[in-house]
Batch of 3 targets.
Target 1
Amino acid sequence: MKKSWFLKFSNSLAQISGHASTFVIAVLLVLVWAISGPLFHFSDTWQLVINTSTTIVTFLMVFLIQNTQNRDTAAMQIKLDELIRAIDKAHNALLDLEELDEKDLGRFRERYEKLAREARDDLRDASREVDLPSVDRMHKD
């Protein structure tokens, strides 16, 4: 499978930006800038250098992070879909839920919240008979 130039670039940049050494370099650059303040008499140009630099880096990183997050989310959804598909008793209707609107998702959510409440009630009843963890302190909606 051939990777696009942007995919290669964004993967590499994401890896580099996530390293501790990159953070240390960024801190050092800020320190050099701060220490150089007296040399440039804390001028408007001196302040503009850090403001412009950080704004540009932040602007570009937003797109890099979003691209990486989109790919990670899509890959995770495919993996979850495969797990649902592969499990015999799983409902295939749960495949591709991320494509549903909020109203349809709400109906699925209500069904699974009801199942969770029933399971906690069953656990509460069973914990009286055997030594199981208490669910009385669990969050209730």
Target 2
Amino acid sequence: MGEKKHRRPPSPAAEGFYTPFAALRQQLRARASSPSTSPAPPAAEVSPQDLALFLAEMADVTPLPADVRGRVAGQKRRHPALPPPRAEASALAELREVVSGQGPFVLQDTDEYTEGVAPGVDRRLAQRLHRGDYAIQAHLDLHGATAEEARAQVEQFLLDAYLRGKRCVLLIHGRGHNSKDHRPVLKEHVRTWLSRGRLSRLVLAFATAPPHNGGAGAVCVLLRRARRLPPR
């Protein structure tokens, strides 16, 4: 008697079996072998205004040196820190405002003279502005503008000057002789814009311009030094 040979079982496809996942298996293999062609998500655009304010916020920040050993995890706090007393918390908040330059400006204002300095800035800086010790690098004339128009112009002008690295600029607001009740309306608005809100983050000091630059009808502004972003 001859030896009985073992037959190889037929494949499902050859015998007409139902194979619902055969096509899916081929697609998965093809996708795994081909490189991905999906586009990367677009980077978020940053407006010049947001960039200027970010650079102003980071102007006094000193980056830490690179650690050649790599990133080291910080130590875990064993016990939760107790909140400081109210008096200490208030003092710490004021100190943070002084360090960040976001606290209230120190202002002096009369009919013929106006000055303001950021928190922690020596008042003699404003006095030097008034004497004309700093060269004017750019100026903006607000004559004929409404308060709303003037605010938009001042904001764009200061942001542009800051991004271009200019330090001392001149805002010509006029004396208000042609306004209602002969009040220097734009002068009051300019002082508020420079000492409060987002524009104040760009300003170190301001003072009434010297006579040869407009006197009581203009104000000299000393901007913070722009911080440059490191190259990518």
Target 3
Amino acid sequence: MSHEDKTNLTEEEARDRVWELAEDINICMFVTWDGERQRARPLAANVEREDNAIYFLVDVDGMKDDQIERYPVVTLAFADNSGYKYVSITGEAVVTNDRAKIAELWTPDNKAFWDSKDDPGIRVITVTPDDAEVWDSPGKFVAAVKMLTAAVTGAKMELGNNRKVTM
């Protein structure tokens, strides 16, 4: 375990927690590289551990498609600020026009962006995770108590579990 891993979780337990939190938090900042700068945008994640993949429905006109084609390594940053729980996943992304997968991922919420699952402008981004890092606090109340204690005593605050893991 590296000096940055502050957890008693095994690698498998940490991996499980990455998948659980990504699914629970659902919305992530999807970060791409355009050759000069990182670009981030919020996207709804469809987490499917059994596929070892995270799927996103996107519009074909987005610049992220070209960025992914040129630079397929992306980062997904999930944050539950109210619970002090965070996950960062890095992996390889691919953009496809897989109509069966689009139909499978379609929910009524998607009508805010497209008329139907048959809209020809919908694409699916598939991210296969390579590695991840999880920060998992026992909750807001415990974190507040630990912050107060650290402020009063001058001790360094340890909020909870932090672990890097290979996916």
